[in-house]
Amino acid sequence: MAKAYDFPVTFTCRHDNCDEVFKQSAIEQVLKLSRYHSHIIDADITINGKKPSTRVEIVVRVPGVIITAAHDDFHRTVALDAAIEKAKIQIKKLKEKIAEHWGPSTGSPSVAESGNI
Question: Dihedral (C-alpha) 89, 67, 84, 48: value to the nearest 10 degrees?
Fold first, then answer.
């Protein structure tokens, strides 16, 4: 049975050897981003291990928006955690912006309120 937060996640590791445990951990962490926005289309994780530091880039696609978060660090797990935190903040801001745009459901204004009597 598919989970509520299943969406395709692509994992790419360049110039570094990423083991299966790290890969699965990274994918699980990115899948948890659906807690903050339920309409995520897909995500890409790119680990670029050019020495001396590692760059982690996460691209999350939601309808109408592409969210990109990246972080450089000497430890790839620290870089991954920071990039996920950045993506989470951007997703929360997007969700907040959508909620402000639509506002509370108040219905249509009455004829007397609009001044067209």
Answer: -150
Cis peptide before 52 (omega within 30 of 0): yes
Specify the DSSP element, H or E, that contains 54: strand 54-62
Is the whole-model pTM more than 0.85?
Answer: no
Residue of 33, 37, 38, 30 whose CA lies nearest to 9: 30
Would you call 50 exposed, middle or buried from its count of C-beta atoms within 10 A (0-12, 13-18, 19+)? exposed
Please report the domains of the chain, with CATH numbers, ordered by start residue.
Answer: 9-99 (3.30.160.100)
Report the alpha-carbon distance of residue 117 to residue 111 in Å, rounded: 6
Mean pLDDT, the chain cut into blocks of 10 residues (117 residues total): 73 90 95 91 93 93 94 94 96 86 56 52
Residues 90, 67: contact at Cβ < 8 Å? yes
Token pair for 13: 């590791």
